[in-house]
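User: Sequence in, structure out. Go.
Assistant: Echoing your sequence, followed by the structure tokens.
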Amino acid sequence: MQLVLASASPRRRQLLEQIGVGCVIDPADIDETAREYEAPVDYVQRMAQEKAHAVFVRPEHAQHAVLAADTSVVLDGDILGKPADRGAALAMLARLSGREHEVMTAVCLLHAGNAVSEVVTTRVEFVTLTLQMCEAYLATDEPWDKAGAYAIQGLAAAFVRSIVGSYSNVVGLPLAETWRMLDAAGIANGLQVAGPAPTE
């Protein structure tokens, strides 16, 4: 069964390749506006499900499996999305400075009329950031298409004091949970097992 990744994120494609999963890229185009009073966990799950469905219903994917994901940085119950401009990015980094935040990624897999989804949360703590540190980071091209205005797999790794949970989740796709979904659905991967993958 061919896998379609409903995302333009090169990071998600690279993570799938890391576990031996090939895919076709076909990004979803949906309204990603959060609803009023929508909890972050509900938001990321809805986004992943809507992205997967938007691609799954395309005629060319009628016989394919579709994987979608959505990642948000959450602080004090607020969703910190991709920064619109330099001011927004600086404000996000200032809020994250010296504090612990959550990174939530929802993953949704649609195949053969079946749907499975899961939300994974990782806690990340930043060191205290000076204005000079923030400005140096904003002078790079890393922050602009990243939730929370940072890329843990890039230069912003220097900002991370500690991490509790899945590292790949912060990059954009929790590999342990995604692998279990794909393997159970019979999607070819580098760790193919007979039958459903173990839950632990």
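User: And one key feature?
Assistant: Residues 40-56 form the longest helix (17 residues).
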